Fold:
Amino acid sequence: MALKVIGAGLGRTGTLSLKLALEHLGFGPCFHMIEIMSDARHQIPLWMNVTAGNPDWDTIFDGFASTVDYPTCSYWRELATYYPQAKVILSTRDADDWFRSVSRTILSPGNQAKFSEPPFDKALKPAIFEPFGDRIDDHDFMVEYFRGWEAEVIAALPPERLLVHRLGEGWEGLCEFLEVPVPDEPYPLVNTSKDMEESGLVRKAEMTPEEAEAAARGYASAMQTKAFGHPSA
Ligand code: A3P
Structure:
């Protein structure tokens, strides 16, 4: 099945909430970083090929109808070309809030250390960390990077193919864009900095690959339950 929705928004712009929302609306399963962490031993070799310039998108997205979050947002241009029928969603938020959020979570020193080690250094670090070089802690650089990213996506796509989805906007614009009815349930609010800190997933944990995958699956299930009150949509 070809992707129907491609997320171009950077991590920490509400991508896990958007994943659960898309799945709830019938655009799932939706690929997210949590899929890689939940099935790392299978996924990491596929992402090494992406980094090496030989992406096998059909295998990576086999069975998925949509994708959001890192690392796939880093390839939004390629994916938008590869899946010409797919709509694109740019999830976004206030740039200062984004910087505060990434600094506490996915771009924190603990995560930088984790992604500098095998196997993540070759498979995922280039797509997530390398664009920031040594300026990952530089507020002004990072905020400019974020705004530049937003502007680039908006400039590249025709307005009818792109939805700019701001944190807190909820269902209406999303459902109108995807031409589906607005659900009765509240829009998901998951993967807050507090959720991540309490989960311990950001810590550089000394877990076996099996334990790390199980922890990621447990977190995904907890976030699904937080959003909709039950483990799967
Ligand atoms: P904070 O770190 O500021 O808490 P992602 O899932 O891409 O990693 O993004 C998570 C961030 O989006 C978190 O920010 C989380 O609180 C925020 N978020 C997720 N869903 C939201 C919603 N429905 N309304 C407002 N913020 C939301």
Summary: The CA atoms of residues 224 and 230 lie 7 Å apart. The chain has a mean pLDDT of 94. The first helix runs from residue 15 to 24.
